[in-house]
Amino acid sequence: MPQHPKRYCESAKSLAAHLCGLCIAFEMNNDQEILRGIQGWLSSNPALSKPELPESHGEKTIADVYGLDEPSAYGRAVEGWARSVWTAYSGLHGLARDWVSESRRPRPFKAR
Length: 112
What we know:
Helices cover 54% and strands 0% of the residues. The protein is mainly α. The chain has one domain. Helix 2 runs antiparallel to helix 3, helix 2 crosses helix 5 and helix 3 crosses helix 5. The longest helix has 18 residues.
C-alpha cells in the first residue's frame, strides 16, 4: 500500500484488506482473530465503495527499511514505515474501523 497504492489498492477490497490490517495492527493489538474475520468477510465479496486515497502515502518508504540487516533495527524500521502510512491515511481511519466492525457482525449461513 505505501509504495504502490495504485497497484495494491486498485480495488476497494484490496484497500480494505490493507487499511484494516493496519487498523488491527495499531488499534487492536494485532488481534489475529479479528484479522481472520476481515479475511473471511472480504472472501464473501461484500459490496464496498472505494474512497479517494490521500495524496501522501507517508513520510517513510521502503528506502528507510532497505539494507537493514540487524533484526531489531529492521523491525523498528518496518513498524515506523507502517505507522507513517497509517498516519498518512488518517482521513480513512473511521472507514477502516467501520469495515472492521462490519466484518465482526454475524453473517447469514449460505448453503452450498
